[in-house]
Design a protein that fits this description.
single chain; about 270 residues; alpha/beta; Rossmann fold; Helicase, Ruva Protein, domain 3; 7-stranded mixed β-sheet; two-stranded antiparallel sheet; binds S-adenosylmethionine
Length: about 270
Amino acid sequence: MKIEFKKKFGQNFLTDTNLLAAIAKDSEIDSQTTVVEVGPGAGALTRELAKVSKCVYAFEIDTDLKEILDENLKGYNNVKVVFRDFLKMPNEDLKAVAGTGFAVVANLPYYITSPLITKFLTCGLEPKSLTVMVQKEVGERIVAKPATKDYGVLSVMVQLCGIPEIKRFVGRQMFTPAPNVDSCIVHLSSIKTPKNYERIVEFVKGCFASRRKTLSNNLSKMFEKDDVADVLAEAEIDPSVRAETLSAKEFEKLFQLFDKICQNRL
Ligand code: SAM
């Protein structure tokens, strides 16, 4: 069956069965796991996921793929394809279909990487793990350690909620059609989204607002100077350091200290 690849939906498909089976293995799912797949495309990865999991709920935006999905998933009785724009789907609808505690696997279109990861980290449905194909440079930023050049808001956003790991690099030639960039598989495990996550992320963005300025300078744009000095002293953080030297845990702790001051003044 001939597929017309749609650029607007980021349709770059994988066909190498060894690679697809390896990605299913990277996701660390087992026969007890319910999988949520975003963007099954022609169903090549879906089939590998179906072989190793309890069931797969696959959400696809492009209804033109229905025929080929029906064909390629014939006999895979533990797969249900749902045609929806996943980003616009309310969390209650996702819960009604897939429940909670599912594992997420997605070979994503690059332009929805960040909103999609955020959606899963804030949906309140306790995803067990996230295994996503992302642009290589994005994966390197997600797993970057403090005080390295790639470490920034995205690294902290993800590391606040779990432990990310790059499982493999995937060259552009593995996709049809080939995109202009290389990719990698990032696996996020031990997911627990902290309370006030969205506010912590805004706080972290403020801390990184001027990368060349000290943490203390950036904090002083958000809080009273005296409070900044007191909180940094209490957290035992040198005021002359830059934001990129702090771990996700340290950002969370700093946020809580500032939040306590703000709550006490209400
Ligand atoms: N999983 C397939 C594979 O590995 O060959 C296809 C991957 S392709 C990079 C991305 C898929 O996501 C496409 O099938 C595209 O139509 C689908 N997609 C794009 N945006 C979507 C959205 N908002 N909701 C659901 N699916 C989407």
